[in-house]
Write a structure and sequence with these properties.
The complex is a heterodimer of chains A (622) and B (412).
Chain A (H helix, E strand, L loop, with lengths): L1 H20 L4 H24 L2 H22 L8 H33 L2 H26 L8 H28 L4 H16 L1 H28 L8 H20 L6 H17 L3 H31 L4 H6 L3 H30 L7 H28 L4 H26 L5 H19 L4 H8 L4 H7 L40 H4 L16 H10 L4 H12 L2 E4 L4 E5 L7 E2 L3 E10 L4 E11 L17
Antiparallel strand pairs in A: 1-2, 2-4, 3-4, 4-5
Chain B lengths: L1 H12 L5 H14 L6 H19 L2 H5 L16 H19 L5 H23 L6 H15 L6 H17 L9 H8 L5 H5 L7 H20 L5 H20 L1 H6 L1 H7 L5 H8 L36 H5 L3 H9 L6 H8 L4 H7 L5 H14 L6 H11 L9 H10 L1
The chains are: A mainly alpha (622), B mainly alpha (412).
InterPro entries (chain B): CCR4-Not_Not1_C, Not1
Protein name (chain B): Os03g0102366 protein
Organism (chain B): Oryza sativa subsp. japonica
Chain lengths: 622, 412
């Protein structure tokens, strides 16, 4: 009864927050409002992406960490009033969805709740304790509005109230509409909780419905708000980049939420940017649904790792440093304590639900859903169990674990840099943030699939030329030739083959010293046939003149008309001798037979004889 | 010496000069006492080399020395006449000194090359960015043409000449003189040097050329590992690929036998370069497609032949004192802590990690894998093999030739 009264008070408080937030308009309210909206949507996705029960402690702890980080991100106190408005907007969504699940939950809950009464009661007890503690904290703050509260504390109160009101207020409104009695709501709430625990198929359907509803109802408001902040980009490449950035930022944020809450702010911007493009048509909406599903799966997987981290570090020093409220610390510890028994209880009901036949109306669909749910749920505990068992036994596991730690340490180094980006412009902020993310990922794991993806996409021209390689046929070498290539290999820097050089050897006679040049005096040593050879075979040459001159010295003379060389026979007098001619016997050189023949009774006119040629003045014969 | 240089340039410049004039000049040098093979010879060639390079860089002085006047118009171009004259002098000195008593060419050529190496090193250190490697490149090209192309020398003397050049190129490796790297690669891969060295009798020249290729990889490894391909390094990489393709096409056995040491030096990101080296196979071996259907590996005749590995496989293991431990593990595997300690020993110390760019000792891992593959064919124990390989294979970054492991598998 006291819980119901508290929920009513909180609900009215959230309404007051909504009314006070309306006067803020323009870009300021839009900018400050986008951050809390993202929180709510991510929280809803976390809750409905998998079982509601195990995610509730996780989602609460995420919100606490995010709230503690907000002061450092620079959000001012007036911005804190916006979550109330969003909370009021989310209420109709929850109200419209719960009636759909109510009938299904009612029928199945009865079947499941009848069997494991003990486990269901245990779950109910844990959940109620958590809710009451949250309500108590919110009530204590709202009861003293007049006192001066620190900005961090002021921001904490409205968020807690809004998130709690979203869950409790929805159920109350539903019950008020559907039933009028006071005892009925308590029974209905018990059935709802047990139904969520027992049936895996319901969660699968519920998650898809919730996402669909959120997209249909929330996208117009988001489009209006985002219109003043981001340009609507229809390219699929940008969507892929945004989604990738969202996943990586989300994983980093969940792993290090205690030390720094800024990653949550980062991860929400790309997610919001992706929504306006999905409003382009039904196909766009379906594509967005698929992308959202991928994101949810990633968040779910990261959430499991987050729970592992919580078990390894029960008391987080960052959380203590942010606030000195003892109640909050106890609350955080209680959540961690409840985490283990809740997970253990989850395994027990799952095994029973597999054995149930809930009816013969939809056997194939129900079996598929149940099998999928079982595989999803069973994947968590084995991962948790394997690491502690392996680490003390084998060294290789420790090595791989160290590698994982090194990979996770990479994002930590980038957090201070990312904090500085908060104050910059929105567009440049988004671009730089994504670029730094992509750049930071490459050296962390170059040999994984992400590293190879970078190589395959050929983002880096140099890396692709080394790994994938250059076209070897463009290097100018004919690798198919049967001959050897080194003979025509000109240079490593030229693309054309060099012409083959003939392999020859210069004879020794060419490098020997040349004989001395001829001189006119040398002709005196030649024989007469040699002189005739020089005369006849060297026309227009100086050697010809030298030979002729030497022949005249030896008694020969040249006849112009007959064109022969003539000489007198020794000891023979001419027969007739006149001042103008002679007649007698002469020796004649026949160039055809190359011999000297005797001619008798030859008339020789003196004017037909060639004069002796002059020797050239130069000493050397050229 | 200046007067001797001018006289020699005059002698070379004379168009009707012959070997008799060259012989007279060499005898004149011997009469002076310059070619006795002592310190005077080194100083003589030292100053001669400096004069030749200096005159080639400043063409105006050729006119002063009585050179051809038409060359004075080429102010900005390098005149190679002094360089060619100097290389001709070296060739003539070696030619006529071998015919007479005294130091032969085998002992004189290394000294001349050593003088040139020292001059290049000092010149590159002094001038830094303004170092011009082209005169020295011309000098080595001329010497290669004059000394190696001639068939008058015997085969043994020719091999000695090649060894002298290989040692000189090793001393001038690009890691020491980076500005000399382009000329260096062209000299090493020149068609008068590389084929002659690789086609010597009984492959005597292969270790020397392998050392030169490793010098090239050591120079390029830091840039390729960090993917810092500027325009000069891109040209260098393409030139290296061309040289490797020449070796792959004409001398595949060289790449086969030395693939182990080559893969040690190649960074892990250079996948294509490693594939070119590992693609080499002997010319008389028939290679089948591993992806073809109905392939029976055990029926191939090549599987029984172990590949020849001329690299030092056990060098890295011995330096890390792991060879004895591996042998002991093979003999007695029960109760051994070898596998548990193996992981730590394969990591590099902290100070070496920044230099190598990786935490793993890649040469040691390659050496261990190949040594196990060789030894396991002698030990018929499958459990030891599976335990050892399961600890090593996740850390192996490089791939070896399939025939090596095929031999090991066949033995097992």
């Amino acid at each position: 009864m006291s819980g119901l009264l508290n929920s009513n008070l909180n609900n009215s408080a959230s309404n007051l927050q909504d009314s006070t937030g309306r006067p803020f308009t323009g870009s300021f309210s839009g900018q400050s409002g986008s951050v809390p909206g993202g929180f709510h949507h991510s929280g809803l996705h976390n809750m409905h992406g998998s079982l509601n029960m195990p995610n509730m402690p996780g989602s609460f702890s995420q919100r606490n960490a995010a709230m503690s980080g907000l002061p450092s991100s620079g959000v001012q106190q007036p911005g804190g009033s916006m979550p109330g408005r969003f909370a009021s907007n989310n209420l109709p969504v929850g109200m419209s969805q719960i009636p759909h699940g109510h009938s299904g939950v009612g029928s199945r809950g009865l079947n499941v709740g009848g069997g494991p009464a003990f486990s269901s009661s245990l779950n109910i007890g844990g959940t109620i304790q958590g809710l009451s503690s949250n309500l108590g904290a919110g009530g204590s703050r709202n009861s003293v509005p007049g006192m001066s509260v620190s900005p961090s504390l002021g921001n904490l109160g409205p968020r807690i109230t809004g998130s709690v009101g979203n869950i409790v207020g929805g159920s109350n409104i539903g019950r008020n509409i559907s039933s009028g009695g006071l005892s009925v709501p308590s029974i209905a709430s018990r059935m709802n909780l047990s139904g969520n625990v027992g049936s895996g198929g319901l969660n699968v359907q519920g998650s898809s419905r919730m996402m669909n509803g959120i997209l249909q109802q929330g996208s117009p408001q988001m489009l209006n708000m985002m219109g003043s902040l981001y340009p609507t980009s229809g390219g699929s490449l940008s969507q892929n980049q945004i989604q990738g950035g969202n996943n990586s930022l989300g994983s980093m944020g969940m792993l290090h939420d205690a030390s720094d809450g800024a990653p949550f702010d980062m991860s929400d911007f790309p997610q919001l940017t992706g929504r306006p493009s999905s409003a382009g048509g039904p196909q766009g909406q379906y594509g967005s649904l698929r992308k959202q599903g991928v994101g949810v799966n990633t968040i779910v997987q990261q959430n499991q790792e987050f729970s592992i981290q919580n078990e390894d570090f029960p008391a987080l020093p960052g959380y203590k440093g942010n606030t000195t409220d003892y109640a909050m610390e106890l609350h955080h510890k209680e959540q961690l304590h409840d985490n283990v028994p809740v997970m253990q209880a989850q395994q027990y009901p799952m095994s029973r639900s597999v054995g149930f036949n809930l009816g013969s109306n939809y056997p194939p669909n129900r079996q598929q859903h149940q099998q999928g749910a079982n595989s999803v749920q069973n994947a968590g505990p084995p991962n948790i169990g394997l690491r502690p068992l392996n680490s003390p036994n084998q060294t290789s596991s420790l090595g791989s674990y160290e590698q994982l730690i090194q990979q996770y340490q990479q994002p930590q180094a980038q957090n201070p840099f990312r904090l500085q980006q908060v104050s910059s412009a929105t567009q440049s902020y988004r671009d730089q943030s994504l670029k730094s993310i992509q750049g930071g990922q490459t050296p962390s794991d170059p040999y994984g699939l992400m590293g190879l993806l970078g190589v395959i996409r050929m983002n880096d021209v140099d890396l692709s030329s080394l790994a994938l390689g250059i076209d070897l046929t463009t290097l100018g070498l004919n690798l198919n030739s049967p001959d050897n290539l080194y003979k025509t290999f000109g240079s490593p820097w030229s693309n054309e083959p060099a012409k083959g050089e003939p392999e020859f050897h210069t004879p020794a006679c060419y490098s020997a010293e040349q004989p001395p040049p001829l001189q006119p005096i040398h002709f005196q040593k030649f024989q007469t046939p040699t002189l005739f050879y020089i005369f006849y075979s060297m026309p227009r040459d100086e050697a010809q003149l030298c030979a002729a001159s030497e022949l005249y010295t030896r008694g020969w003379f040249y006849h112009k008309e007959v064109r022969v060389w003539l000489t007198r026979i020794p000891n023979v007098e001419p027969l007739v001798k006149t001042p103008h001619y002679e007649r007698g016997s002469y020796g004649c050189f026949d160039p055809n037979n190359w011999e000297t023949i005797r001619k008798d009774n030859f008339v020789l006119h003196y004017d037909q004889i060639e004069k002796k040629p002059a020797i050239p003045s130069s000493q050397n014969v050229r | 010496v200046m007067r001797l240089f001018n006289d020699w340039c005059h002698t070379c410049d004379h168009p009707s000069s012959a070997d008799v004039a060259y012989g007279r000049f060499v005898m004149h040098l011997q009469q002076i006492g310059v070619l006795m093979g002592d310190d005077i010879t080194e100083r003589f060639f030292h100053i001669f080399t400096e004069l030749a390079v200096k005159h080639s860089l400043v063409p105006n002085q050729i006119v002063a020395t009585g050179g051809v006047s038409q060359k004075s118009s080429q102010q900005l171009k390098i005149s190679y006449f002094p360089i060619d004259s100097f290389s001709k002098l070296v060739a003539m000195v070696l030619k006529y000194s071998s015919a007479e008593t005294g130091p032969n060419k085998c002992s004189l050529l290394p000294k001349i090359l050593l003088v040139a190496v020292r001059i290049i090193q000092r010149d590159s250190e002094e001038k830094k960015a303004s170092f011009n490697p082209r005169p020295y490149f011309r000098l080595f090209i001329s010497l290669l043409y004059d000394l190696i192309s001639s068939d008058l020398h015997s085969d043994g003397a020719n091999f000695q000449v090649l060894i002298a050049f290989a040692n000189a190129f090793h001393a001038l490796q690009p890691l020491r003189i980076p500005s000399w790297s382009f000329a260096w690669l062209e000299l090493v891969s020149h068609r008068t040097f590389m084929p002659s060295l690789l086609m010597c009798d009984s492959r005597k020249g292969w270790p020397f050329f392998q050392r030169l290729i490793l010098d090239l990889f050591k120079f390029m490894e830091p840039y390729l590992r960090n993917v810092e391909l500027g325009e000069p390094m891109c040209l260098m990489y393409k030139g290296t690929m061309r040289v490797l393709l020449i070796l792959l096409h004409d001398f595949p056995e060289f790449l086969c036998n030395y693939h182990f040491s080559f893969c040690d030096m190649i960074p892990s990101s250079c996948i294509q370069m490693r594939n070119v080296i590992l693609d080499a196979h002997p010319q008389d071996m028939r290679v089948v497609d591993p992806a073809s259907p109905n392939l029976k590996i055990d029926l191939l005749p090549e599987i029984s032949m172990a590949p020849q590995i001329m690299s030092d496989v056990e060098g890295a293991l011995k330096s890390k004192l792991m060879k004895t431990e591996v042998d002991e593990y093979f003999k007695k595997s029960e109760g051994s802590l070898f596998l548990s300690d193996l992981k730590q020993k394969l990591l590099l110390p902290q100070n070496e990690t920044s230099v190598a760019g990786t935490r793993y000792n890649v040469p040691l891992i390659n050496s261990l894998v190949l040594y196990v593959g060789i030894q396991v064919s002698l030990i018929l124990s499958c459990s030891i093999l599976s335990d050892l390989l399961s600890a090593i294979l996740p850390l192996t970054l490089c791939m070896h030739k399939c025939s090596g492991f095929a031999t090991a598998t066949n033995g097992v």
